Amino acid sequence: MRLIGLDPGLRNTGWGIIESEGNRLRGIACGVVVSDAALSLAERLCQLFDGVSAVIREWQPVEAAVEETFVNKNPSSTLKLGQARGAVMLAPAKLGLAVSEYGANHIKKSVVGVGHADKAQVEMMVSRLVPGMNATADAADALAVAICHAHHRATGARWRSGDVTAGADGGEIGAVRGGRVGAGKGKSGVRGAQAEWAQAMLARAVGKV
């Protein structure tokens, strides 16, 4: 399945396209859509929308994933980033693609294994998971979003097929109760949010293949 990851930014919006087949990932293409700082905000948003739309039409992914907005201390910058993100999300949605959203720490944890990994670590892991892409920083971030989405899709597929089981029926991950991932037969184990639960299922599922 062909997926596109998008890392929104008003100046540079990274994009990365991968093929996902089971546990196997293959990099297809990546790049950056750039807006002209000399233009008005509305014109720059149009550039982002048109650029991302052109990428999707060219490479024809079937699903999209977008990094959630990072809120910083500058309200003006945060607002502009949110507007850019809206334009970027609209492009795949208008073309009929399902659009998923992932937080930055969630993406890093899925790709690197650490929620607060730095950019260098993310780029290194992206280059290992989808070698030969020669991605810039923005494109590498976008590929990381696509990889995160591929992992979650694969985990969901294994869960639905019965390859991953939980709780008293014999699953080794354990039951999920009140935000906890059990160590087996519903016993208390790893505490955390939905992201950690998904990561635990992914690790177990990959180990079975």
Which helices and strands appear, and what pairs or packs with what?
Elements lengths: L1 E6 L4 E10 L2 E11 L6 H19 L3 E5 L7 H20 L3 E5 L1 H8 L7 H11 L7 H25 L14 E2 L2 E2 L8 E2 L2 H15 L1
Parallel strand pairs: 1-4, 4-5
Antiparallel strand pairs: 1-2, 2-3, 6-7, 7-8
Describe the structure.
With 209 residues, the chain is of the alpha/beta class. Helices cover 47% and strands 21% of the residues. It contains six helices and eight strands, in the order βββαβαβαααβββα. The protein has a five-stranded mixed β-sheet with strand order 3-2-1-4-5. A three-stranded antiparallel β-sheet has the order 6-7-8, covered by helices on one side. Residues 164-194 and 204-209 have low confidence and may be disordered.
List its traits.
209 residues; alpha/beta; Nucleotidyltransferase, domain 5; 2 domains; five-stranded mixed β-sheet; three-stranded antiparallel β-sheet; 6 helices; 8 strands; 47% helix; globular
Helix content: 40-55%
Provide the succession of SSEs. EEEHEHEHHHEEEH
The largest sheet is: 5 strands, mixed
The CATH C-level class name of the largest domain: Alpha Beta
Q: How would you write the strand order of the largest sheet?
A: 3-2-1-4-5
* Unreliable residue stretches: 164-194, 204-209
Q: What structural class do you assign from the helix and strand content? A: alpha/beta
By CATH, the superfamily of the largest domain comes out as Ribonuclease H-like superfamily/Ribonuclease H
- Ends distance: 19 Å
Q: Number of domains in the coordinates?
A: 2
Number of helix segments? 6
- Tell me which CATH architecture of the largest domain applies here: 2-Layer Sandwich
